[in-house]
Amino acid sequence: MKTLFKFTFIAVFAAVAGYNVYKSQSVMDGMSEFALANVEALASGENSKGAQSILIQDKGSGWDCINGYHYDIIYYRVECVGEGNLPCESGDYERYESTNQKCYEA
Fold first, then answer.
1. pTM over 0.85
2. Edge-to-edge strand list for the sheet holding 51-66
3. What is the DSSP string of the chain?
4. How far is CA 97 from the centre of its chain?
5. pLDDT value at position 9?
6. What is the number of alpha carbons within 13 Å of residue 44 lying toward its C-beta?
């Protein structure tokens, strides 16, 4: 009986730890995609007119329930500085990331 209890405890502990690692990596995926977009922007358009520098400002975050699913929203501002080869469009932007969790709109 004690062996079964120990095995169950270890299995549950491993499952919870694995889930936490998965969730922490999925949050980092969004930042990696954002960084990848910046690298692609830097690499493309070397012969085109654009900005010399791109400033990105974090404007906070929020969430919304859309079509019954929970979405995290990241707000940010892009500012294009100087004249250079970086393709850039200044403005305020929002990025929606689905959490794949159901929610109910009030």
1. no
2. 51-66, 69-86, 91-102
3. -HHHHHHHHHHHHHHHHHHHHHHHHHHHHHHHHHHHHHHHHHHS-TTS-BEEEEEEEEEEEEEEEETTEEEEEEEEEEEEEEEEEE----EEEEEEEEEEEE----
4. 7
5. 67
6. 8
Q: Averaged in consecutive runs of 10 residues, what is the pLDDT profile of the chain (106 residues)?
A: 72 70 60 69 63 91 91 94 89 93 82
Distance in angstroms (rounded) separating the CA atoms of residues 30 and 25: 9
What's the rounded Cα separation, in Å, for the pair 62 and 67? 17
Which are the contacts of 66, defined by CB distance < 8 A and separation ≥ 6? 96
pLDDT at 25: 63
d(CA 81, CA 53): 5
User: Domain limits of the chain?
Assistant: 2-102
Angle value at C-alpha 39, between 38 and 42, nearest 5 degrees: 90
pLDDT of residue 84: 87
* Contact yes or no for 34/58 (Cβ under 8 A): no
